[in-house]
C-alpha cells in the first residue's frame, strides 16, 4: 500500500473513531461535523476532504455497533430445523437487535446516504471483513452485501434455488418484508407506537412470518 493510501486510511479511521465515541457518549441525534472535528483534533474542513457529509461518518461508525448482531446471527441460524426456519431466523435476529437500537439501525439501513450510497457501502465492505464468521452460503450474503433490499433479495434467491420459494414471488415478498421492518423502525422513532423492543420484534416477526408462509404455501397456524 502506498504511503498516501496509508495516510488516507489513517485519517479516515481517526474521524470514524471520533464519531463512534460521540455516538456512544451523546447518541446519533447529537452528532455534527463540528463535534466530530473537535473530538478528532482537526478542523471541519479537513473532514470534508475525506467525507462529503456527516451521514457517511455516522454510517461507518455505526457499523461498529452492530457486532452483537453479527455474532448472534450464526446462533439464531443454528436453531433452525429447515431452510424456511433458517431464513426466518435471520430476520428474527435482525429484528431483535434493530429494535433495541432503532436510531442506529435507521442510520445504517434507512437514512439517506447521499447521491451514491452503493459506492459507500462497497467501500465499507472492502475496509471491514467478517472472515471469522462461519455461515451457510445463504447467510454469507449478509456480510458481503450491505444494501438491505439487495441483500435480502439475494438471500431469497438462494432459498428459491432450494425450492423454498418460487422465483416469481421473491420481488414482492422482499419488498413487503422490508417495508414491514422499516415501518416499525420509523414508528418507534416517531413515537407512533409504545412497544418495548421485545414487543416490536415479536409483532414484526408475526407479520413477516405470515407473508413468508403465504409465499411458501404453508399455513401459519400449522407451522406455529
Summary of the model, kept short:
The chain is mainly alpha-helical. It folds into two domains: 3-51, Homeodomain-like (Arc Repressor Mutant, subunit A), CATH 1.10.10.60; 66-114 and 134-223.
Q: What are the defining features of this structure?
A:
224 residues, 13 helices, Arc Repressor Mutant, subunit A, 71% helix, mainly alpha, elongated, 2 domains
Structural account:
With 224 residues, the chain is mainly alpha-helical. The radius of gyration is 19 Å and the shape is elongated. It is 71% helix and 0% strand. The longest helix is centred in the first third of the chain and has 24 residues, at 3-26. It is built from 13 helices and no strands. The chain has helices at 3-26, 33-40, 44-47, 54-62, 67-79, 83-98, 102-109, 117-127, 137-144, 148-161, 170-189, 197-215, 220-223. The chain has two domains: 3-51, Homeodomain-like (Arc Repressor Mutant, subunit A), CATH 1.10.10; 66-114 and 134-223. This is TetR/AcrR family transcriptional regulator. Keywords: DNA-binding, Repressor. Residues 9-69 form the HTH tetR-type domain.
